[in-house]
Structures are given as C-alpha cells and as structure tokens.
Amino acid sequence: MTLDGENGLAGVINGKLIPFLALPINHVVDFLAQQFDQGMSYNSLNVYRSAISSIHLPCEGRSIGEHPLVSHVLRGAFISCPPQPKHQAFGTLKSFYVILWTWGQ
C-alpha cells in the first residue's frame, strides 16, 4: 500500500485508490503490528485502535476496534510488553499511616 497525497485520506492498493475509511482489515492489523514491532507501547496501540475505529467503516458487522484480528494483535502486545504502572508503590498501608502519624507530631 502506498499513500496518495493528492487524494487526502486514501491509499493505493494494487493500483486501486481506496479511502482509509474502508481499508481491508488485514491492512489495519498489519499497521498495528508494524507499530508494535517499531517499539510502540500497548497503551499507544490502544489509542491508535480507538482513533482508527472512530473513523473507519464497520468491518464484518463490527467496529474495527472490536474485530477479533485487531483484538488478537493488541492482546499479543499486552502479553509481551504489559503496561507499567504510572506510580510506584512506596510500601504498605501501615507504613503510610506511620509516616502520617509522625508528621502530625
């Protein structure tokens, strides 16, 4: 697939101009897999899936984001590189209360 800048959101596949809103599912899946191979995180892939799903026409009676092939790619990304927590835990709840108690004295 190549991009066709003159026609806006469209791609050329096998000589035919196809709008991105109607790309075949295998192209969407390949795109997400390539992004993962280039180091994109699961959370970022999920954002891409949501964005594509919001503008893409339904495929096989489902939104693109709910298609089993897309879900399979994202599940694989989640399993191989699960998202890391944004905040580090600092200890138990008891140690938190001890710190709070000592600050008050």
The N- and C-terminal alpha carbons lie at a distance of 68 Å
- The largest sheet has its strands arranged as 1-2-3
**Could you name the ranges where pLDDT drops below 50 across 5 or more consecutive residues?**
1-9
> Using only CA atoms, what is the Rg?
21 Å
Principal-axes geometry comes out as: elongated
Which bin fits the share of residues in helices? 40-55%
**What is the residue-averaged pLDDT?**
79
Give the total of domains: 1
Number of DSSP helices? 4
* Number of strand segments: 3
What structural class do the secondary elements suggest? mainly alpha
> Mind describing the biggest β-sheet?
3 strands, antiparallel
Question: How do the strands and helices of this protein lay out in sequence?
Answer:
Elements: E1 2-3, E2 10-13, E3 16-19, H1 25-37, H2 42-55, H3 68-80, H4 93-103
Antiparallel strand pairs: 1-2, 2-3
